[in-house]
Amino acid sequence: MTIRYPNGKKYQPVQKQKKPKKKDYTFGNRGKTLEDELNESNEYYLAHHLAVVHKKPIPIQIVQVDYPGRSRAVIREAYYRTPSTTDYNGVYKGRYIDFEAKETKNTTSFPLKNVHIHQVEHMKQVDEQQGITFLLVSFQQLDRYFLLPFPQLYDFWSRMESGGRKSITLEEFEKNAVEIRAGFTPRIPYLDAVDSYLVNKESEDGARGE
Amino acid sequence: MTIRYPNGKKYQPVQKQKKPKKKDYTFGNRGKTLEDELNESNEYYLAHHLAVVHKKPIPIQIVQVDYPGRSRAVIREAYYRTPSTTDYNGVYKGRYIDFEAKETKNTTSFPLKNVHIHQVEHMKQVDEQQGITFLLVSFQQLDRYFLLPFPQLYDFWSRMESGGRKSITLEEFEKNAVEIRAGFTPRIPYLDAVDSYLVNKESEDGARGE
């Protein structure tokens, strides 16, 4: 189906402006950040009609804007704001998907200080509304990726709140998360992990008679 | 359930910074923009555990950032980018919701030039992924609000593409959209309109044997 502008011109999706990449030449990600890898994976999913997931823009508080003549407006003073939600959300088979992605150079555990409390609060709200919500963690040095569903994340968060350890160990990821087998196209096939999670969840819900 | 910071301090949701309001003292919206009204409605839905819907931040391309001493980073040069999606999305009873909100001072029709082609393209992708997607239109002067589901919006868009009229008349909204009865809390109870739409849609899908 072709979409056209009011003047009859054919619509061509705009190429996204690429932002400069942070260089990091570990073997695993070959110079790509987790954000790059996820954006490419999301573009793959979109192009193949498998899911519509986008990264949210960074929230900015704009203080001063110049309008120089006929040129486009220039923002001259603005500040980063703390995001009140996670970074990624969208739709997969009609269901709402919402996740935060974090990478760590640590090789034995993931420090919970990388997750903001307002993100945990947001994921809790999404979970209560039956959305699919999770933390996606990249252990950069190990080239391993995990999808940790919110209920499990919340257990580890609560352990920390009650004075327990402030991180989740790799072994705990192996036991409680779904491992994502990094590939080529898409680089991070996280929807496969979502499928596994949902199959397990539904069989558990079924066993509980829900 | 109380959420605590790693240091044991209780989490208090941050009050959103209010941006200066565009003044518009028509009777209907009493100085509030549609964005304000929708943000308040979304806060109401969130507080009452009915839905988790947020406005996406405006996408900005950042060119230069200053880091003045110990103060926070100041963005010194940045530009507005064209959004590639709609403004609002979130989750309602497990389902993905995605919409664009537009207001018009026009009293007899809604000009389609207010909708960007990339937003139509995005809504089409969401619709194909079985998300709930629609255009929310406020006729400011009339104090009337409509939820126009994407399939109907797409019909009007296609009419324009094939050389037909470049707007949707008020009568066409009355016939093809679900009217939202503006109230007090929430100001714009658009989830009621979503419910009506879903009931109709499911009975139609049922009739088609889907």
TrEMBL record, chains A, B:
Localization per Swiss-Prot or TrEMBL: Cytoplasm
Swiss-Prot/TrEMBL site (Transition state stabilizer) positions: K102
Entry's cofactor comment: Binds 1 Mg(2+) ion per subunit.
Record has Repressor as a keyword: no
Binding positions (Mg(2+)): T85, D87, E100, Q119
Cofactor: Mg(2+)
Residue numbers spanned by region Disordered: 1-29
Protein name according to UniProt: Holliday junction resolvase RecU
Organism for this UniProt entry: Chryseomicrobium palamuruense
Taxonomic lineage: Bacteria, Bacillati, Bacillota, Bacilli, Bacillales
